[in-house]
């Protein structure tokens, strides 16, 4: 066992882990931050996306020890300080960008990384950026729409029905 | 004006807040103090005889609690099949045993041979590697037609052959059918494959079980669409446990799509092992494990023949389908190629003579069962592809050919056992033509051609039988269960309401849409109504969520229970208002006496029900009612879909440029949620049509065993969809007039995509009249160059 | 996965020393290695992380104008930092995997693994780049030795890759729809002294140079110059995503498109 320390959602945490402990396991099992989900074992689905030092990464594809000393952000730290939904989360609710909710944490974390990099992405840029985030419920329509809305774009022209 | 609350309002989903903040409670988020972990050693060969299993080394490994093999389950029944299909000669289907852990033979890659329970998952896996299994490999049975031949290796040694059943529906007189075809002016024939799919809900399956020696009670947390069904099957048919000692909880579930309906061996195993080991036992499937243990979908090979008269009226339809059931009968597998498939072969058309033949096969593959649409996509695909081919052969407009043959009089008795209660197929097609802008297609095609691309427009219709299902009818057809549902409406003293429903919500938004109904009926704010689901200890009973049934069946039970509550509340209100019960009206949460200004608020009545100081003596205190609802008929959502594709003639790459759906779902409770359901179905349908394919090699090895080889649709594989559900013919036999919307997208979209690709290729002068799904670039290129 | 000892050296020398141990394995971004280890298909006793070595990271322009990329530089960094220096290379890096994978995966890791469908080998071979290790320099033409096989010795680590910058270049990737690796990827670079064409995803032998196409393009640099050329389907990969013939066909299409993009 090796001690690992990092900042998670602004809070310093540490724990004893094995070499093989994945960052996703550290978050879920050691810190009980179960909002980060694991949906595959080949780094394809993106349900486990978190931010490490401000960048989106797949936490099931990174060792906890690799995040030693890092600043980690998870879905649990995304809401506004008063607990209300942040702009992206609110847009997902407003535009029905989620159904079963399992891919949602990864989607929100990827969307946040995208908007940081590209504050006003086009539809095509959003679709391309979500290449590593699978959703089986929504057919992606409302996810793309929600991210466009979260970036301040008018989405009223996008057919809803 | 769109409504802002109640029935018809696009209320925002309340469940979203927990999912968006990481506060959901999925089964893998549940950890019980002292839990052990199970790892299943699964067969890596498709077919073999187990000669010996030596677990002694594994048992001595660190952290190992116990190692189980098939021997430990010799006195335990196997996994049951919930539907007995009778073959065309009146004999019951062949029904082989399906053990929890393999006994004697392994029959597919992924078949569990042994299970190791240990302190940690890695320890369990380490020990599993130390199990010495000697298996004599046998020839694998994979091709369905070869499997049916005499002398083929047997998947199950005790069966007479690999045919589960030969089933027929519709016209039984072969001579009559032959005559129709002999006299037809034109016959179009098509042979096609409905590709095998893996449902792949984003949450893999999980089971956590605990047992208390003190109370002899079990609790199973599991990723299920129907916890009561799991409890019933596991208690009554597998483990022989009394139901009242077993609680099954399906908490937040990350998508189901059918594959989480079924009772799986891992659920029964964890429950059994929790007692045997006296420790909570947890199993979490990896995605790789899901690919070889979740029931898979579709996998039909069909020949369909359509006979038309000289005026292009459909006069006869005949199909011969081989349906792959995999190695064992999964819970509802037998019903999918039969009663959920053959019955839909009439489609939206008044074809007078129909004969459906289905031969269901055992093969050395993962079991196949219901996947979104379940039988209905297979029927729709055959029918809508053969109609399209017929139109092309006859040189007539595919839409006109469909319109000419539409059923227009309702109710309509089909030749394949259904009675459609209502519909307006021409009206729905009108909506489609407008929403999809058929008129603008030639200009869009010209624009594509100017860029060197081929553009095609594909159209199809669909009908589905949902709201599953009248218990007396399905009982006659072989179902070993009733298919009603139940709800309890519990009004609290302060007027808020908890509704315990048998339907399970795993993405469908019941927690938002169901309260809209109850709140609307009473005239109170939606936020005063809460839905409780997914826990057998909290809800009266429930057959669960599948077959687009939740609102049509469970919602109807909820309406009935709410009506009972209102009836009783009116008695109390009449007492408080000193009026006759017959004069009491309920509107906007106020009970009034007709023709007077006397009123009492909902909350005052409910408080009185629980503080019955001034109360009618003949009425019981409290305000809680339960109702069971058994539907009188199926519901029949129907629609028309249009897809526009571009094909790159150099690479064969197909891109979906536009996709439009016009659906008739009857009345709609929450349009936003309905849109979302259709979007998701279309996404999966496009996935089937262009990308997804579950492939085994000639030895039964699963080649598409991970997301690296099984192509899931991604955001950039699909466009924005246009969804129109303004065509509404309400269901005539349930109280809400609703039909169900969960599967439509997956049923209606594959033929539209393939029809569009064929249209594009033919526009480019390519003599291609069919390509099997998935219509991959490689296949398109091969078809263009053959 | 099996357990292992995790080491995170901060110098190349320490990394080389750590890799001298028995069953030691270098960890780049881990985007292929970690999934492989999850499947228990790799079982290193020691995993030596290279991501903590500052001298392995970053992009710089050498005196001769070539671009040197540290082996532990992520795809995302390359996509960002060489965008104006070597656009085709940046484009390639910016389309590997997905954004989260690009934030972890490294050029060194990709090259050392030499997956037959990976993108970077095409860029390195197509550019005629130099692979620099802790002990030597290996020319691209010598580095790739068949799928998952390279000229690297046991314990040898890539420290940087030096790319000469061509006059024009293009990477054309046709996606394998599931993995989003290249079903066929063609990296074409036009230098003053000739054209190089490297193909990934297609061959049983891993990344390769399409010599006939190079010769034809050296004579005449336009798409039509390739119309009569075809790679031999026999040597191509045939699998559930595309037949040998289809891959052979795609090599031609992607190469012509790369030429077109360079004109």
From TrEMBL, chain A:
It comes from the Bacteria. PROSITE patterns: 2FE2S_FER_1 (PS00197), 2FE2S_FER_2 (PS51085). Keywords: 2Fe-2S, Iron, Iron-sulfur, Metal-binding, Oxidoreductase. GO terms for molecular function: 2 iron, 2 sulfur cluster binding; metal ion binding; oxidoreductase activity. InterPro entries: 2Fe-2S-bd (IPR002888), 2Fe-2S-bd_dom_sf (IPR036884), 2Fe-2S_ferredoxin-like_sf (IPR036010), 2Fe-2S_ferredoxin-type (IPR001041), 2Fe2S_fd_BS (IPR006058), Beta-grasp_dom_sf (IPR012675), Diverse_Oxidoreductases (IPR051452). The keyword Metal-binding applies. Transmembrane segments: none annotated. Residues 2-78 form the 2Fe-2S ferredoxin-type domain. Pfam families: Fer2, Fer2_2. This is Carbon-monoxide dehydrogenase small subunit.
Automatic annotation (TrEMBL), chain B:
It comes from the Bacteria. It holds the Pfam family MoCoBD_1. Keywords: Molybdenum, Oxidoreductase. GO terms for molecular function: iron ion binding; oxidoreductase activity. Residues 21-139 form the Aldehyde oxidase/xanthine dehydrogenase a/b hammerhead domain. This is Xanthine dehydrogenase, molybdenum binding subunit apoprotein. It comes from Ruegeria intermedia. The lineage of its organism: Bacteria, Pseudomonadati, Pseudomonadota, Alphaproteobacteria, Rhodobacterales.
Automatic annotation (TrEMBL), chain C:
Pfam families: FAD_binding_5. InterPro entries: CO_DH_flav_C, CO_DH_flav_C_dom_sf, Diverse_Substr_Oxidored, FAD-bd_PCMH, FAD-bd_PCMH-like_sf, FAD-bd_PCMH_sub1, FAD-bd_PCMH_sub2, Mopterin_DH_FAD-bd. Keywords: FAD, Flavoprotein, Oxidoreductase. One of its GO terms (molecular function) is FAD binding. Residues 1-168 form the FAD-binding PCMH-type domain. This is Carbon-monoxide dehydrogenase medium subunit. It comes from Ruegeria intermedia.
């Amino acid at each position: 066992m090796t001690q690992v320390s990092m900042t998670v959602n602004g809070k310093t945490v540490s724990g004893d882990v094995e070499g093989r402990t994945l960052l996703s396991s550290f978050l879920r099992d050691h810190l009980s931050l179960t909002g980060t989900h694991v949906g595959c074992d080949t780094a394809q689905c993106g349900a486990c996306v978190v931010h490490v030092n401000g960048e989106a990464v797949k936490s099931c594809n990174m060792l906890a020890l690799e995040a030693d000393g890092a600043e980690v952000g998870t879905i649990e730290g995304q809401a506004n300080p008063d607990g209300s939904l942040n702009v992206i989360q609110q847009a997902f609710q407003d535009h029905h960008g989620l159904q079963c909710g399992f891919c949602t944490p990864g989607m929100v974390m990827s969307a946040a990384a995208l908007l940081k990099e590209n504050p006003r992405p086009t539809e095509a840029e959003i679709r391309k950026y979500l290449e590593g985030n699978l959703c089986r419920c929504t057919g992606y329509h409302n996810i793309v729409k929600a991210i466009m809305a979260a970036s301040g774009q008018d989405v009223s022209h996008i057919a809803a029905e | 004006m769109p409504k802002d609350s109640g029935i018809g309002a696009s209320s925002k989903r309340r469940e979203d807040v927990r999912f968006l903040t990481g506060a959901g409670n999925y089964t893998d988020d549940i950890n019980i103090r002292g839990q052990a972990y199970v790892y299943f050693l699964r067969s890596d060969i498709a077919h073999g005889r187990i000669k010996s299993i030596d677990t002694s080394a594994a048992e001595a490994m660190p952290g190992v609690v116990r190692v189980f093999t098939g021997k430990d389950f010799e006195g335990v029944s196997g996994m049951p099949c919930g539907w007995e299909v009778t073959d065309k000669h009146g004999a019951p289907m062949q029904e082989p045993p399906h053990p929890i852990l393999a006994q004697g033979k392994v029959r597919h890659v992924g078949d569990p041979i042994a299970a190791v329970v240990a302190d940690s998952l890695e320890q369990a896996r380490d020990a599993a590697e130390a199990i010495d299994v000697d298996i004599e490999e046998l020839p694998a049975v994979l091709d369905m037609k070869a499997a049916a031949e005499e002398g083929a290796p047997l998947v199950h040694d005790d069966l007479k052959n690999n045919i589960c059943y030969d089933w027929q529906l519709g016209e039984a007189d072969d001579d009559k059918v032959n005559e129709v075809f002999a006299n037809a002016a034109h016959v179009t024939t098509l042979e096609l494959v409905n590709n095998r799919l893996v449902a792949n809900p984003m949450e893999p399956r999980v089971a956590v079980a605990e047992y208390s020696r003190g109370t002899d009670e079990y609790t199973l947390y599991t990723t299920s669409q129907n916890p009561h069904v799991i409890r019933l099957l596991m208690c009554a048919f597998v483990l022989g446990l009394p139901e009242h000692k077993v609680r099954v909880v399906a908490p937040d579930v990350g998508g189901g799509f059918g594959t989480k309906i079924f009772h799986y061996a891992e659920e029964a195993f964890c429950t059994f092992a929790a007692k045997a080991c006296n420790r909570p036992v947890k199993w979490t499937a990896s995605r790789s494990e899901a690919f070889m243990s979740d029931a898979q979908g579709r996998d039909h090979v069909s020949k369909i023949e359509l006979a038309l008269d000289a005026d292009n009226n459909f006069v006869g339809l005949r199909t011969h389908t081989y349906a792959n059931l995999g190695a064992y009968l999964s819970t509802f597998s037998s019903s999918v190629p039969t009663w959920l498939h053959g019955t839909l072969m009439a489609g939206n058309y008044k074809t007078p003579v129909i004969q459906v033949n289905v031969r269901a096969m055992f093969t050395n593959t993962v079991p196949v069962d219901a996947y979104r649409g379940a039988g209905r996509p297979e029927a729709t695909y055959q029918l809508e592809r053969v109609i399209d081919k017929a139109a092309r052969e006859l040189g007539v407009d595919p839409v006109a050919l469909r319109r000419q043959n539409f059923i227009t009089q309702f109710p309509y008795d089909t030749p394949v056992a259904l009675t459609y209660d209502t519909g307006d197929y021409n009206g729905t097609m009108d909506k489609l033509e407008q929403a999809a802008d058929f008129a603008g297609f030639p200009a869009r095609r010209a624009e594509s051609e100017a860029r060197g691309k081929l553009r095609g427009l594909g159209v199809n219709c669909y009908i589905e039988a949902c709201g599953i299902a009248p218990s007396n009818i399905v009982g006659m057809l072989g179902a070993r269960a009733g298919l009603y549902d139940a709800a309890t409406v519990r009004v609290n003293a302060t007027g808020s309401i908890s509704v315990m429903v048998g339907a399970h919500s795993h993405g469908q938004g019941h927690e938002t849409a169901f309260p809209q109904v109850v709140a609307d009926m009473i005239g109170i704010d939606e936020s005063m109504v809460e839905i409780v689901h997914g826990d057998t200890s909290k809800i009266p009973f429930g057959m669960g969520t599948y077959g687009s049934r939740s609102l049509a069946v469970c919602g109807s039970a909820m309406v009935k229970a709410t009506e009972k509550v209102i009836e009783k509340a009116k008695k109390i209100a009449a007492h408080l208002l000193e009026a006759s019960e017959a004069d009491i009206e309920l509107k906007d949460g106020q009970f009034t006496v007709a023709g007077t200004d006397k009123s009492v608020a909902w909350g005052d009545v409910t408080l009185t029900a629980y503080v019955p100081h001034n109360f009618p003596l003949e009425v019981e205190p409290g305000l809680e009612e339960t109702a069971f609802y058994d539907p009188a008929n199926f519901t029949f959502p129907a629609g028309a879909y249009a897809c526009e594709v571009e094909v790159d003639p150099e690479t064969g790459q197909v891109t979906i440029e536009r996709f439009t759906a016009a659906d008739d779902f009857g009345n709609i409770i929450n349009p936003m949620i309905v849109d979302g359901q259709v979007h998701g179905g279309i996404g999966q349908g496009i996935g089937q049509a262009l990308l997804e394919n579950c492939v085994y090699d000639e030895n039964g090895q699963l080649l598409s065993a991970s997301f690296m080889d099984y192509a899931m649709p991604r955001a950039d594989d699909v466009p924005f969809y246009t969804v129109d559900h303004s065509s509404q013919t309400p269901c005539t036999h349930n109280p809400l007039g609703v039909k169900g919307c969960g599967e439509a997208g997956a049923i209606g979209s594959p033929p539209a995509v393939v029809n569009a690709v064929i249209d594009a290729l033919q526009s480019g002068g390519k003599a291609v009249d069919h390509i099997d799904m998935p219509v991959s670039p490689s296949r398109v290129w091969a078809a263009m160059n053959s | 996965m099996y357990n292992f000892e995790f080491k995170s050296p901060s110098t190349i020398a320490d990394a080389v020393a750590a890799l001298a141990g028995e069953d030691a394995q270098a960890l780049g971004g881990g985007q292929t290695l970690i999934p492989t280890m999850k499947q228990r298909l790799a079982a290193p006793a020691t995993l030596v992380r290279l991501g903590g070595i500052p001298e392995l990271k970053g992009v710089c322009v050498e005196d001769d104008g070539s671009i040197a990329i540290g082996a532990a530089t992520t795809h995302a960094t390359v996509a960002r930092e060489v965008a104006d220096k070597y656009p085709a290379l940046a484009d390639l890096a910016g389309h590997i995997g997905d954004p989260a994978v690009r934030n972890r995966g490294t050029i060194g890791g990709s090259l050392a693994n030499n997956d037959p469908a990976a993108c970077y080998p095409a860029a390195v071979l197509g550019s005629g780049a130099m692979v620099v290790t802790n002990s030597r320099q290996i020319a691209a033409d010598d580095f790739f030795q068949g799928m998952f096989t390279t000229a690297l010795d046991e314990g040898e680590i890539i420290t940087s890759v030096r790319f000469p910058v061509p006059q024009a270049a293009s990477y054309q990737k046709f996606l394998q729809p599931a993995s989003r690796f290249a079903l066929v990827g063609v990296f074409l670079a036009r230098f003053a002294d000739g054209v190089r064409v490297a193909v990934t995803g297609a061959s049983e032998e891993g990344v390769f140079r399409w010599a006939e196409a190079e010769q034809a393009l050296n004579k005449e640099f336009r798409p039509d110059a390739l119309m009569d050329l075809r790679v031999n389907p026999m040597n191509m990969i045939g699998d559930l995503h595309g037949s040998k013939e289809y891959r052979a066909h795609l090599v031609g299409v992607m190469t012509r498109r790369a030429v077109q993009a360079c004109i």
